[in-house]
Amino acid sequence: MIRELIKHVENSYLLNLPDEMVGKTVEIIAFEIKNEESSTNTIKTTQNIQAIRDKYAQYPVISHDGYKFNRDEANDYE
């Protein structure tokens, strides 16, 4: 996971992804944050992210990359 707080002066931004994200589908979201919130919530956000990672680390990592839905098989009631 990558999280960057920036104050950019142009309308374009170059993001370098780590090697483990290359070739994978990633979601990039950009939204405006208020300045007073960014400094006070950065620590809370980091703690929340770590809490989420810790919570879900106990579950096995699964992948649905090889899954293909077969409509004929799903509608075969006999």
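^ that was protein a. below is b, sequence first then the tokens
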Amino acid sequence: MITTSLSAASRTFARVTPGALAHTGALLLLCGLASCTGSPATLALRPDFEVMTPAGIASVSIRESPLGMTDAEFTQSVRAGMERATDDSVITAPAESPFPSQRIVWHANIAPQRGVSRLMVNVFDGANPYAYEQDTIANDAPTAEVTSAVASMSERLLKDVAAQASTPDQPRRQVAQNEASQTTVSRR
């Protein structure tokens, strides 16, 4: 009986292709990020700053900085790059609770042996990821280069957010508002 089960299992795994394994791994990684980043506890954390997007106000959080940059330096680079991309739509007042459920999360995956960091940014609506961009920078890139990469990624990301916000066949729902804002923001 055990031999039969092992044989059936080996036939099942024999049909799995490397491409399918890569897609499964990417899906599991994204689900892991979504469960961490979109959890109620994470959404309750004070964001680094907020920005107005085509879908309304979004909290912006920094999770991991590139090699050679402090968290404060990377946060400043992200803020400056997003200001460039959004025509100064970064909200300068300190974020107040309750924070918007839309969250933009920046992080870097460092590959010291290759000398590069992969910058990644995800947009979540609560626990649901719906937009993603990435780029690579040299680990010793000057701050201006990092800021420029963030601006370029932000422009692409905000186009994705705008497309998602303007999809007419999706039902819209009301989201929690930041108390600092008196405008009503609708999103899906």
